[in-house]
Amino acid sequence: MVRTEGKSSPQRARVIPGNIIIRQRGTRFHPGDYVGIGKDHTLYALKEGRVKFERHKLSGRKWVHVEPKEGHVLHPLYAKVAAAESKTTM
């Protein structure tokens, strides 16, 4: 079985959960926000949004992120803490 490797989704492409962004051997690209990694190092989208590629200035490591369509959502546990903190500061 031949697997094609490389970028499947270009920069700023729209993706839905489960879409493959990159097929690779090893981790040339690392998963960032809302990106999962398979056992064969395939990167895939975890949320609907747009793909963003980033390179770290110091380490040179390449990251792939998905910017969510509805924006970043806090985990419910942290949302409660943030709401409580905003009430105490008022």
Coarse morphology: elongated
Mean pLDDT over the residues: 85
| Helical run tally | 1
What is the ordering of alpha helices and beta strands? EEEEEEEEH
Rg to the nearest angstrom? Answer: 16 Å
DSSP E strands, number: 8
Helix percent band: 10-25%
Task: State the CATH superfamily name.
Answer: RNA polymerase II/Efflux pump adaptor protein, barrel-sandwich hybrid domain
Main-sheet strand order equals 1-3-6-5
3D structure, described in words:
It is a single chain. With 90 residues, the protein is α+β, with helices and mostly antiparallel strands. Helices cover 16% and strands 34% of the residues. The chain has one helix spanning 76-89; strands spanning 6-7, 14-15, 20-23, 29-31, 35-37, 43-45, 49-55, 62-68. The strands form 2 sheets. Strands 1-3-6-5 form a 4-stranded antiparallel β-sheet, with no helix packed on it. The termini are far apart. The model has no long low-confidence stretch (mean pLDDT 85).
In short:
With 90 residues, the protein is α+β, with helices and mostly antiparallel strands. It has one domain: OB fold (Dihydrolipoamide Acetyltransferase, E2P) (Beta Barrel), CATH 2.40.50.100. It has one helix and eight strands.
What keyword list fits this structure?
single chain, 90 residues, alpha+beta, 4-stranded antiparallel β-sheet, OB fold (Dihydrolipoamide Acetyltransferase, E2P), elongated, 8 strands
